[in-house]
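In the lab's daily routine, each protein ends up as an entry in a very long ledger. A line of letters takes care of the sequence, but it says nothing directly about the fold. The fold becomes a row of whole numbers, each drawn from a learned catalogue of backbone shapes. The protein below has been through that process, and both of its lines are reproduced in full:
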Amino acid sequence: MGPSLKLVEPPAPELDLDAVNARLAGASAEAVLEWARGEFGSGLIMSSSFGAESAVMLHLVNQVIPGIPVVFVDTGYLFPETYQFAEELTRRLKLDLRVYNPKLTAARQEALYGQLWLGTEQDLARYNEMNKVEPMDRAVRELGARAWIAGLRGSQNAFRASLRPVELQAGVYKVHPILNWDREQIHHYLRVNDLPYHPLYRRGYRSIGDVHSTTPTGEGEDARAGRRLGVHSECGLHLPRQSSDDSLKSSGL
């Protein structure tokens, strides 16, 4: 008898995104998550920056999909308070945290290339690719993810306002359960569930990323005004991937 054949599971069929998004139009965040759980099962991951209001998504998603892998991209340039916040929420919410780092440490990057965030558009694209895009892509591959849940909201910038509850990015489905939430819904969820803000929130940091691209915002100022890397407010992590660096600046901001 010859060698046994190894059965290979056929790839899942592509989704009809127009039909899916029509079905989910107006659905609650919980309903979007329940659909994702039924569609993707163990092929689901979520990402978190452990930013100002990240406790909302971490709590919400883990209520519907307990134990989902949570990818935390640690650029090496985060605030000390962000690392402490991540530890606090991981313990409190019993998260399955998966930390992914750039292949080059911050010290080695600066020794070889300087402070890329202060350079040209090409330098910024390289910074984002090394510190954010590549680690997240590696997480998707290593965890075998078919879909990635992210807490993007349409009110945050023009690019995010153009998104639908489910999109396809670089062969991976992106699920946006709170895309249509406003700030009051965010604050209400935090209050009702007794969830903490990031420690820097009370000091005016309402959108928190790397130390060199995050500043406090004033009263009445848009939260994303405190997030700048060059002239952009979108780091490239959630943007469509193209063959050129345009993918890292396609928000037009």
In short: The first helix runs from residue 17 to 24. The first strand starts at residue 44 and ends at 47.
